[in-house]
Amino acid sequence: MEETSDSANPVISKIQEKDASSAVAVAGHPLHAMTVHFPIALVFVTLGVDVFYWWSADPFWLRVGVWSSGGAFFLGLAAGVVGTVELLAVAGIRERVASWAHAIAAVTLIAICGLNWGMRVTEAANVLPHGLLVSVMAAVITGMAGWHGGKLIFDHGIGLMVSSRD
């Protein structure tokens, strides 16, 4: 069976012709790409904090975990709002399956981060083992969402605003 290229498929060619540059940008820099770094970092910080608490049993790490998980949730929520606007506003983004895979993984991640923060605000003593397990799950889903987001940027050129000089 002969392998066909994407350019031979008229549906894929039609989607690739659509503009996929960012609709929500500051000075040509996509806002969604700028807002995801802190929540991603805070997901992994929360995981590290949980490991430190498991290792040391120092209540200091419980307080740090409330702040880091809350930061991951609320900053992730902000990044998710910007990403959702981008997804719905730009047809070249909306019509790609990879965009929806990224969106589903990101919404799942935001829900898990909300669970992680909510568990810590209401029942700080439940950090072991439940908070640690939720933090591991958040780190795994962060990897999945990041993988799909990276594919959108590097494989599909989503959100890139390239000037005519480039």
TrEMBL record:
Transmembrane regions: 36-55, 67-90, 97-119, 131-154
DUF2231 domain: residues covered: 28-159
Keywords from the named record: Membrane, Transmembrane, Transmembrane helix
One Pfam family cited in the UniProt record for this chain: DUF2231
Coiled coil location: none
The protein, known as: DUF2231 domain-containing protein
Species whose genome carries this gene: Pseudorhizobium endolithicum
Organism ancestry: Bacteria, Pseudomonadati, Pseudomonadota, Alphaproteobacteria, Hyphomicrobiales
